[in-house]
Amino acid sequence: MTSFSRFLSAGAFATLLAAAPLAANAETSPPTGAGVANQVEQIKPGSLSADTVFSAVASAKPADLGGILNYCIQSNYLSSAEAWPVLAALNKKTNDVPSNSKGNMSYADGSTGLLKVGGAEPISLEDASTTIRQQACAKVEARAKSML
Question: Helices then strands (H, E): number in the chain?
Answer without folding.
Answer: 6, 2
